[in-house]
């Protein structure tokens, strides 16, 4: 890892550490409802991942662990990793509160080979994860190395076209490239759960096209089972969205020109 990447990760870690307390107290994450039995998983990943009972599952970039714990409630033997030490501490707190047996490990994604032992039936990642990673080639290789033979990787993620816009103004403005190896820096007040939160989010990220994602996984030896694209999102994460009858969100009117999400499943043969 070069020195520039280390600097970027340090800034991102500091920002995510500051976000954990805000997010955990937010309506968006609804920790009280979660502790009372509500799943944090959405219909897309529940349907496409399928039955996880008695499967081992590694959750990459797990934030403070709600999805990891939700899979554990469904019978999976789970391990979650995240860059944020505050996120991992909160995840451990929730794990103890729920009486579950999930392992949570503070780790940069690129340090997973040295920090996480063993192989897994499922490797999982979701919603706003690959944009924090400068190198998808190594990402794909790490995923393949942590899968058992016959196991699969599942990702559901915001569509790369959505990341071409800045949402710091209304209407959103198209300013970023579809894919780029150059780092993108943003600094803004608040966070996605609380726009008025007393925090300045400082974030370094990278835009990756669908071809780069598919190639990273296939070049690592994984077989692509499917690539799906979705017009609807479970999150009201962009300005001026309409809620649908099935409690999803879509962009308004003539802005509805591109998918909001994609999912991919890749198997280790």
SS-derived structural category = alpha/beta
Instruction: Determine the number of helices (DSSP H or I, runs of at least 4 residues).
Output: 8
User: Strands of the biggest beta sheet: in what spatial order?
Assistant: 3-2-1-4-5-13-10
The arrangement of helices and strands along the chain is: HHHEHEHEHEHEEEEEHEEEE
The percent range for strand residues is 25-35%
What's the β-strand tally? Answer: 13
**CATH topology name:** Rossmann fold
The value of Rg in angstroms is: 18 Å
Biggest sheet overview:
7 strands, mixed
Mean pLDDT across every amino acid position: 95
Q: Quote the distance from N terminus to C terminus.
A: 29 Å
Number of domains: 1
| Percent helix | 25-40%
Which regions have little confidence, pLDDT < 50, spanning 5+ residues?
Answer: none
The CATH architecture can be named as: 3-Layer(aba) Sandwich
Please identify which CATH superfamily we are dealing with. Answer: Vaccinia Virus protein VP39
Give the CATH class. Answer: Alpha Beta
| Apparent shape | globular
Organism: Lutibacter maritimus
Domain Methyltransferase: 58-151
Pfam family, one: Methyltransf_25
GO molecular function, one term: methyltransferase activity
